[in-house]
Write a structure and sequence with these properties.
Helix content: 25-40%
Number of strands: 4
Number of domains: 1
Largest sheet: 4 strands, antiparallel
Strand content: 25-35%
Radius of gyration: 14 Å
Shape: globular
Order of helices and strands: EEEEHH
Strand order of the largest sheet: 1-2-3-4
Length: 90
């Protein structure tokens, strides 16, 4: 089952950036484009701010019973993994 979420974010230049996160199976795919552009840019790995925004979107949808807790938990875990400090080996 495919699960898709889309939202708008302003860029520093004042343009609208459209972000789309799609889940197929257990894999998430993040894409974005500026409004008016025909092609989407796939982000692999995803941008941390986009993952944080998706978590906010999913939490709000979860309260309205529109997404599963598993989806919220999976994105929360993904964001926590992205924010873990990288160990430096000397």
């Amino acid at each position: 089952m495919q699960n898709e979420h889309e939202w708008n974010e302003p860029t520093p230049e004042g343009k609208k950036r459209i972000v789309r996160a799609s889940k197929f199976g257990r894999q998430w795919k993040f894409q974005s484009k500026l409004r008016g552009q025909p092609l989407w840019t796939i982000h692999d790995p995803p941008i941390e701010d986009d993952v944080a925004s998706l978590l906010d979107v999913l939490q709000r949808k979860y309260h309205r019973r529109r997404v599963s807790y598993e989806d919220v938990r999976q994105i929360d875990d993904m964001l926590n993994d992205m924010r873990k400090p990288v160990l430096e080996i000397e």
